[in-house]
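In this supplementary section we document a worked example of the pipeline. Step one takes a protein sequence of length 297 as its only input; no multiple sequence alignment statistics are reported here. Step two produces a three-dimensional model, which step three serialises into structure tokens for compact storage. The input and output of this example are shown verbatim.
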Amino acid sequence: MNRSKFVGATALASVMAAGAAQAEMSIGGFTYGHLSDGGNGLSQTVSTNSLYVSYSDSLDNGMGVSSAMSIYAGEILTAVSIDTGIGTVSLGNGRDSAVDKNDGNPACFSLGSCGSAELMGDGWGGAAGGDADKLSGNSIMYTNSVSGIDFAISRGMEGGNVDPVMSYVVGTSIMGASIKAGVSSIGYKDSTQDVDPSFVTVSYSVAGLNLGYGMYDQDNGVEETTMGVGTSMGGFDMGIQFADLDNGSNADKDMMEISINKGLGAASFGLDYTDTDEAGGTTNDTENWRFSYVIGF
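The serialised model returned by step three reads:
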């Protein structure tokens, strides 16, 4: 899951003055919204309004340091990263878990609705979800790359009934295919069952086609697999995604999503058609049209 970031320029002024020769700062922002019709009339949602500034510099000992503060949906989040030369240490209340930062769905081609698991949701089912981000709280993360293998390890903070959540991710490229896999270890202090949810994603490009596959297992009887293919044609980006949810004791679901997007410099627009079928009848089946827009700088 990706987060927008905001840093007030006045808060950075004194820091930048001390190392202006090496410091780097970038300013950006965007708005994402959509119009949708699921059969009950047209509705409009503005999901994100963000303004962000990123700042990086070097310490006297040669280590790199970067800092960002974000304002998003009423939250102010801070993330600090230190490049030690043997990996990067990140901390702050804007630090996602290692799994949440790497479980993006490569089979999704929508302009603005791509997260991780499609039918379980970006959090893999909410507070008890597999990306462990909500349960981790303000994580501390270590990332590094060794011999072509990228890895990330994060430790969450202890909660009222949750032990510190550990998340582990590895990624590499094999014969042109980009592969990521990760697992979170979630342990509870009460009678709630401990779980070790995991994910695997694979992406590959060949002959102008972008192929994607994702598997998300919550370790509680709920598992989702998704696959898709996308391409570019006539200045448009387009793709189709299929998802299958094995919903444990609840009804299983299948989904098909067709997406077409067009970038126009500072603005991009997209149209999605999503068809979701639930096993056991047609009562909970849905069809949805969504027109999305992203405007940024």
